[in-house]
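Thread title: Can someone regenerate the structure for this chain?

I was given the following input by a collaborator and told the matching structure tokens would be attached. They weren't. Posting the sequence so someone can regenerate them.
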Amino acid sequence: MTAPELRARLDDLVRKWNLTIEHTAETQTAVLAFGTRNLQPVVLKVVKHPGDEWHAGEVLRAFQGRGVVRVYEHVEGAALLERVMPGESLVTMVRDGRDEQATTVLAGVIRQTSGCTPPVRCATVEDWAAGFDRYAASGDSQVPAALVEEGRRCYAWLAASQGETRLLHGDLHHYNVLSDRHRGWLAIDPKGVIGEVEYEVGAVLRNPIEHPDLFTSPDTIARRLRCFAHVLNLDADRALRWAFAQAVLSAVWDVEDGFSVDARNPALRLADSIRAMLAGLPPR
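Best answer:
Regenerated them for you:
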């Protein structure tokens, strides 16, 4: 979508949904318009191009406001959302040395989102595995071929042996959980994917992205997994294996998004840390 087309669509939705806009902001993938409707604070999000966020409104509607922001209106590529205020993310809590508390909050959000019926158009974790095959066929070598294959095999085994599956956020981490003075901690920007709960932990374990020394530490990984296992009654070993496979896939997606990837890539650093931890587990 060109800039004029994006602006025209934004203006059209502002009129259609009777909004008063105070200011706008732009991210890599969307334009956000902050304002009110009937004096109620809202955010209009318009996505620039079809992709993971194109049907986010449908996903949010499926969650019914349980642990996530409410959606008031939505069409393909755009959604009118509850405005979270003050909107401070969990990253601040981690920076303040309260990673354990932040992990407990994330576990609570995951627990709140359980039991929701997925929308008709919703990817599965099996669908997302296609990234491994695309990368193998691309000829790129930034992510070591042996690691890609190890990640692919681990991912495929986990996907084929899943327990009960459910609607997952799909990109739940510290940046995507914000504070609201009335409703507590709420998740934003779901991708929406169907899989077992152990899958949801993967994004948490590789964040906050600017603190790789923290999240690649085996002590941090083990402590976070203990919290998730306690609060969510999940299989910590499976969550660890998912986190390894997803870390490799995350590096693959970085390449697909045009980023340069080497051994310093945070996701690859996490994959290396988890690989060493997996060596101490019974073979699957």
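The longest helix spans residues 236-256.
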